[in-house]
Write a structure and sequence with these properties.
Rossmann fold; binds molybdenum atom; Dimethylsulfoxide Reductase, domain 2; 27 helices; disordered N terminus; binds ligand MGD; 29 strands; alpha/beta; Barwin-like endoglucanases; binds iron/sulfur cluster; disordered C terminus
Length: 741
């Protein structure tokens, strides 16, 4: 007989326990049922009742058991015994590991100041918010995450400045959009980033009109009413031209604009010059098609704008975000059913402890002065500017940063210009990496801490992109090796350091998050699995928008106050056939990188057999004419080269890409190779990208896409390229002037 024990279902016949949790093999959010037998997870299935995924799982979630029980997972803390990067380790106890970290932090702080510790993390995992909390608790303003300037956060910050909150796409309610515009975003592959791919599929089943803005003909583009195949990196020009049409042809929502927006006249004046005829040669889209798209977008309602990280991978990032925010705003597609909505935030902001760090210390954040929306006064989640921080590590200027504590980030694969990343990591006096696997980045550490996967941790899942208002649980179901959950590690370090904050049991923080508005405790969420308070629309009608004018600021008073252009404008990509025609003679193609595929999450999962079988080798996409002119065919290896480096990938012939554009996959390394760099330099798209200025003036964004490259056929047997590293990585800390401590 089955007996139901709250959320835990015992199957008496088979002695199997079923626990509710939330998959986090990506940014996460899908409800799952974990089947546990003898303290081992034997099966993972989608929770049919969970509003996000209704029982479905993507390939990465469906093969999560290969992640949890992967033989390559780290099991014990380890200390480096050889040279850094030599791959020689000894097993140590957690006590020894904690003692070492605590003494290194104290030593570094005593010699160079609290700001000389760098705390790093990767994209949107369960412990993301805890990392900045931890950094604040130990007194360093220099924490960073690759997405704060390159992914999602620019959209969050731009939205907060413009309309007070992040708008998101809600698909769980009855009303679905009549039109969806997918802009640099392919949620059928990339799933949760503002919504869930599963919700998008449901909405598409109702056959809304669709517009797709993408240099590649994705499945969405193929089926779209209008596909705008723009030149990579010119999204701002296209958005400005669409605004021009909507305003000039009087297609905007007068009532909404009059009552709820600020600075419409100024915006109208600004976009006057940005006609479709102006945009056509810049974007490579036809003027008529831009007009047609603008008309369709403005006249079919309600509509959703699905925007992705493609707009955040060039220095025009913030301008593009701001221009795009104007489209739903002037057409009134804001916070009502079937259109962009504001999440309900039924839990309070995460206690990140920024208020506990004195203003003087905050001002030392690297990037504070130059990138106000990323690191300074306008930042909603202030973080350090990675190129500025890395420069400080390498050169000691403006002050030394000497120790790094990374909680899950494969910087040697995912940051721009990885040759510089390598030099940066090697320049540190001390590097600790908390990881699931021995990645190329972890190989450069002094100390390795093994962490728990999502199925082994307790936490509350409720982040800004959970528009659906679902708050879900992740619960510890098994113990693997000696792995410990990141939050617990951070807490223990803080306790042993004797600092004032971040020393309470993480469960107390989860209780706080849930008790404020939901009136529940973490153990109650564990019982329920997830909760979904009722969703309300038109929330702005009660209290206006949370901006200085109480309206959507098309003209941003906050940006104006900081000396940043309050209206969106166009910026040509720094490297392009038009801005650098000389360079284009040698590097004739425009490079895009990293369009997501369903098998891998960034640099992860190459060690999961089922997923790897789907994509065994790195691939780049070339138009058939391009392949022919280069004399290569499908499956041949080519070397993709920029001024900064080279990587080799296999040719995939793809008609849906412009002959002048090349797409390279990112995140490739080879966990199956035993050498300490695991083939990191061979096929790594970030050997090609740039961490150099110019940066986005608001967010400090560097260039991961829209760069110039050339392509050369190579034989597989040819020795792969490796960067030419300097012999010494000693930073010049002795030379710098006394800095302001
Ligand atoms: N060229 C190019 N580069 C890109 C992109 C691109 O499109 N093109 N995309 C960029 C974007 S949008 C992003 S967000 C970044 C992502 O950059 P990263 O966040 O560095 O991406 P991951 O490869 O997922 O690295 C995360 C690491 O954390 C580990 N990990 C996973 N879960 C946990 C956990 O719970 N705890 C700990 N401690 N570790 C964990 C994984 O094993 C993995 O090694 O990459 C960027 N890089
Ligand atoms: N399976 C899987 N899911 C993921 C991830 C993953 O690695 N794997 N990563 C997660 C993360 S951190 C993120 S940020 C999201 C990213 O996911 P998305 O936001 O969907 O972004 P991408 O897939 O990188 O790119 C989307 C589309 O933008 C197009 N594109 C490239 N350059 C340009 C350009 O200049 N302009 C325009 N308009 N389009 C361009 C690409 O061709 C691609 O089809 O996915 C998340 N989900
Ligand atoms: S979309 Fe993300 S959360 Fe959902 S099953 Fe896939 S990996 Fe897991
Ligand atoms: Mo991202």
């Amino acid at each position: 007989m089955d007996q139901i024990l709250k959320n835990t279902v015992f199957n008496a016949k088979e002695n199997i326990i079923i626990k509710k949790s939330t998959c986090r093999n990506c940014h996460g959010g899908c409800g799952v049922l974990l089947h546990i037998e003898d303290e081992k997870i034997i099966k993972i299935e989608g929770d049919p009742e969970h509003p996000m995924n209704k029982g479905a799982l993507c390939p990465m979630g469906a093969s999560a058991l290969e992640q949890i029980y992967n033989p390559k997972r780290l099991k014990y803390p380890m200390r480096r015994v050889g040279e850094r990067g030599e791959g020689k380790w000894e097993r140590i106890t957690w006590d020894e590991a904690y003692d070492e970290i605590v003494s290194k932090i104290k030593e570094t702080q005593a010699e160079f100041g609290d700001e000389s510790i760098w705390v790093g993390t990767g994209t949107g995992r369960h412990h993301f918010a805890y990392v900045s909390r931890f950094a604040n608790a130990i007194g360093t303003p220099n924490w960073c995450e690759p997405g704060t300037a390159q992914c999602f956060r620019p959209r969050v910050h731009g939205s907060v400045l413009t309309m007070g909150q992040l708008p998101v796409c809600v698909y769980t309610n009855e009303e679905m959009p009549e039109l969806i515009m997918f802009w640099g975003h392919n949620p059928l592959y990339s799933s949760p980033d503002g919504e869930m791919g599963f919700g998008v599929k449901e909405a598409l089943a109702r056959k809304p009109k669709t517009i797709v803005v993408d240099p590649r003909e994705t499945m969405l583009a193929r089926k779209a009413d209008i596909w705008l195949q723009l030149r990579p990196g010119t999204d701002d020009a296209l958005a400005l031209a669409m605004l021009n049409v909507i305003i000039e042809e009087d297609l905007y929502d007068h009532d909404f604009v009059d009552e709820w927006t600020h600075g419409f006249d100024e915006l109208a004046e600004r976009v006057k010059k940005y006609t479709p005829e102006w945009a056509a040669p810049i974007t490579w889209c036809k003027a008529d098609q831009i007009r047609e798209a603008a008309r369709l977008y403005a006249t079919v309602k309600p509509s959703m704008l699905e925007w992705g990280c493609a707009i955040e991978h060039t220095p025009a990032c913030f301008q593009t975000v701001r221009a795009l925010l104007c489209l739903p705003s002037i057409t009134g597609n804001i916070d009502h059913p079937g259109s962009w909505a504001f999440g309900m935030t039924p839990i309070p902001p995460f206690p990140q402890l920024f208020d506990k760090m004195p203003q003087e210390q905050q001002k030392k954040r690297l990037g504070y002065e130059n990138f106000k929306v990323l690191s300074g006064e306008l930042a909603q989640l202030p973080s350090a500017h990675i190129p500025t921080l890395f420069e400080a590590i390498r050169s000691g200027n403006p002050y030394p940063v000497r120790a790094g504590l990374i909680f899950g980030n494969n910087a040697l694969s995912t940051y721009g210009e990885v040759e510089l990343v390598y030099e940066t990591l090697k320049s540190l006096d001390y590097l600790m990496v908390a990881e699931l696997y021995m990645t190329p980045t972890a190989e450069l550490a002094d100390l390795i801490l093994p962490v728990s996967t999502w199925a082994e941790v307790d936490t509350v899942v409720a982040t800004p992109f959970y528009a659906q208002n679902v708050i879900s649980v992740q619960q510890k179901t098994i113990q693997y090796g000696e792995c410990i959950q990141d939050e617990v590690i951070m807490t223990e370090i803080c306790r042993r350091l004797g600092v004032e904050h971040c020393t309470e049991d993480p469960e107390e923080v989860f209780d706080y998050l849930l008790s404020d508005q939901l009136g529940m405790k973490f153990h109650e969420l564990k019982e329920k699995g997830w909760v979904q308070p009722e969703f309300k629309y038109h929330k702005y009608k009660e209290n206006g928008f949370k901006t200085p004018t109480g309206k959507i600021e098309l003209y941003s008073t906050l940006l104006e106050g900081e000396g940043i252009d309050p209206l969106p404008y166009f910026e040509e990509p720094p490297e392009s056939p038009y801005s650098t025609p000389e360079l284009a003679k040698e590097y004739p193609f425009i490079l895009i990188t990293g369009a997501r595929i369903p098998m891998f999450f960034q640099s992860e999962f190459r060690q999961m057999p089922t997923l790897r079988k789907g994509r065994p080798e790195p691939e780049c996409e070339l138009h058939p004419d391009t392949a022919e002119s280069l004399g290569v065919k499908a499956g041949d290896w080519v070397s993709i080269e920029t001024e900064r480096g080279r990587c080799r990938q296999k040719v995939k012939i793809f008609k849906g890409i412009d002959p002048n554009v090349i797409h390279a996959q990112h995140g490739w390394w080879f966990p199956e190779e035993d050498s300490p760099d695991h083939g990191n330099w061979r096929s790594n798209a970030n050997t090609l990208t740039s961490m150099q200025p110019p940066y986005c003036s608001a967010m400090g964004t560097y260039q991961l896409r829209a760069l110039l490259c050339k392509v050369i056929p190579v034989a597989e047997s040819e020795e792969p390229w490796r960067p030419d590293f300097p012999e010494s990585f000693e930073p010049n800390v002795g030379d710098i002037q006394e800095w302001d401590r």
